[in-house]
Amino acid sequence: MTRIGLIAALLAAVLAPPCASAQDSTAAIAYRDPGIRLLRSMVEANPDEKSYRIRLAGSLFEAGQYAEAAEHYAEYMEGVQVAPHIVRNYLFALTQTEGSLAAGERTASKYAEIYPTDAEILMRLGYFRLWQGKFSSALETCRRASTLDPVNEQIAECAEQAANPPTGIRGSSTIDRLTKELRSAGLVDSDRTEIRFRLAAELSKAGRYQEAWDHLLTLEPAYGTSARWLDAFLTVEKGLTRPDGSSPMYPIDRLTFLLRARPGDRELRLRLADALIEEQRFSEALGVLTAPGRLRLEDDAYGDRIRRIVDLREARALERIAELTGDPTGGATAPDDLTELTSHFMVLGRGREALETCERLTTAHPRDVDAGLYCMNVLSGLGYAGRAVAEADRLERLFPSDETVRRRTLIVRLESGRLDEAMHRRLDGLLTDPSDPELLLAAAGYHAGEGRMDRARALLDRLPPPDVTDPHASRRHTLEVLIDRETRRSDIEREHELLRDARRLAAAARDETGTVAGEVSGRYRDAVDAYERYFEARGVRTRPELLELAAVHAAAGDHRQALSILHALEDEFHDGDVLRLIARIRMDMGDAGGALAALDRLIAERPRDWEARLWRADVLAGLGYHEEALAIYDRVPEGTGTTYAVAQRRAIVVNEARGAGAAGDWSGLDYAGILAPNADGVRARGGGTTYDRWGQGMQTHVTTPIGLVVLAGIDSHFLSGTRRLVPDSETVAGRINRLWTGGIFD
Question: Do 438 and 411 form a contact (C-beta atoms < 8 A)?
């Protein structure tokens, strides 16, 4: 079967409506073994036949009937030496039987001498002594057992309790007192609950796990999903687990409660599904496998079990249809038979035949309330909302005071979305009962369909936590996802509306340039407040919107607040756009140093950002560095797409530079020259004379605003040869250092 086919089969199995006679059994089935009755009769007929008696004792032990099992074990063990595993079973049965501590100690002491290396027998002996208050002998016995099995936790606990009597007392005084309190009259339910929890805990500490389990089963319907109950269950489950891993607990209950405590355990989930399938409780098995967040279609173990469930349900449905329609007297006519037949048609997806069978059912039994309610649900499940409501009206006319009819017909109306004022009043009255998950889910779905997501969410919150085999888990999860999605969508729409409002106010403030300054400032404040409302609704401040808010602050003249926002963004995540805005605001503030620092960083990162270079030229021109500004303008290539009229800006800067030179205003100018190395040399050879000169040094030219070029330099000359060009004249050798300056008009 392909994955698509598997999904289709799964949906068909999950969505099929329930049937009172054909749906899977959901009642817990007590342990029943006809073999026990047979063995009991054989023992009664042959009381001296020990083989029958030991088989009966073993069967009773496996069934959890420990008191009777202990009696037969005792009868079997008289006069014979038995194997260690029988002794262990007998001692365990005695721990679960009230008033058997002394007998247990005697038997354990006897067989501890026969089997001195059996750690479990020694452990039982230690516990029997511990529970009777014989702490020193219990400690000695448990320590002996610990040397034989040092990793056994029960043995370690026995030694710990015996070594610390105040915390290890397992006498019956506390249990007896709590039992009397539980039986006393006049207690409210909350008091009984607390006493029962404490009594279960004390029974567990005393090793009387079966009795503790009985109390926990009483508490399970109301508290079975609570952490306190699950912790107590895990303690009892561990105590009742036999050495071979089996337990007297009903297997499905045991696996269900274990899965509650460990919902992510895949193997445990599959074991529970297998147990439910074995009991033909297919709907519950599907619920376990398809629980929200647990379905794994890619896992063959899940897919195989789902296919098996679908195949078994279909086979069962075909078999029952053949039996119900093959009656030679004319086919099924009884209400239960017609109801079951309809449910099987629904399982097979044969909606038309299911509808026809339902019509036969309501026609033949018009005053059968169960039949009418079932067919109403079938009509609703098949999508015939109008006919389902019509059937609801008919049932309400026939049974106006039946509370079940009023509730079920209201659910159908909720699912169809057809409620009048009277139905709304009925809904408000019925919703006072928090223990009706089906009605709460239907009401939540109705309110979600009407767009009242808060009301739908409040109804879902009233539901108890979902259980492992909760039949409503999938529907509840679907509603939660729908409500979350719609709530988020409406929140996003509201956020967008707030953002649009903030942008509209900011644009309006910028456009009103002719308004009085105070009024413009007030409009900017309104824009800032609108942005803050948007951020509060969204719950997070994102970078694009923060840039917009910084721009609004800057436009309002609040440069400090704008820079605070931008520097925070820059520290969190470096961004060239943020750096550009910082430079622009610094320029508007007149902070030339800050603007140049930001622009230098931006140009270093983006060398082809000509707009940033032109901003830098503007700042330099404002500082009086006209030559540097002109140099930047001259390097701007054509077609860069900048918004500047470069030629116009250049002309302005040139005029400013000339004006500054004519006025003699040289302040702010940079007179640093360019240092250039120079070197020259002369070498002369005459008939009787020689002359060599080699010089090296540095020189610079500095141009002033008045056209004067100042020259300066330093060099060294190395000389050798005859001083005069006369043969045989005196020779010289040495070095001459020279510092010189001068000027020319350009």
Answer: yes
What is the rounded average pLDDT for all residues in the chain?
A: 79
- The dihedral sign for the CA sequence 361, 365, 366, 371: negative
- Residue 708 or residue 404, greater confidence: 404
Structure letter (DSSP) for residue 730? P
Closest Cα to residue 261, out of 293, 237, 225? Answer: 225
Average pLDDT over residues 152-166: 81
Question: Mean pLDDT highest for which of 299-303, 430-434, 487-491?
Answer: 299-303
CA 171 to chain centre: 46
In angstroms, the CA 107 to CA 475 distance is 57
663-685 tens-digit pLDDT: 555 555 556 667 788 888 888 88
Report phi then psi at 471, rounded to 5: -70, -15
Residue 388's H or E segment, with its range, is: helix 385-398
Q: Sign of the C-alpha dihedral, residues 191, 194, 200, 205?
A: negative
Number of neighbours of residue 671 by Cβ within 10 angstroms: 9
CA 174, distance to chain mean position in Å, is 43
Task: Give the C-alpha separation, 96 to 291, whole Å.
Answer: 37
Cβ atoms of 582 and 598 within 8 Å: the answer is yes
Longest Cα–Cα distance of the chain, Å, equals 162
User: Tell me: the pLDDT tens digits for 304-361?
Assistant: 888 898 999 899 889 888 888 876 544 567 888 888 899 889 888 888 999 999 988 8
User: E-assigned strands of 162-205?
Assistant: none
Q: Which CATH number fits domain 674-745: 1.10.30, 3.40.50, 2.20.200, 3.40.30?
A: 2.20.200
Q: Is it the case that residue 15 has pLDDT exceeding 60?
A: no
Whole-prediction pTM value?
0.50
List the domain boundaries for the chain.
172-249, 674-745
Query: Which phi and psi (to 5°) does residue 676 adopt?
Result: -130, 135
The tokens of 247 are what? Answer: 């337990």
Q: Please, are residues 279 and 25 in contact by the beta-carbon 8 Å criterion? A: yes
Q: Is 708 helix (H, G, I), strand (E, B) or coil?
A: strand
Nearest 5°: the CA angle 311, 316, 317 is 100
- Report d(CA 63, CA 498) in Å as an integer: 69
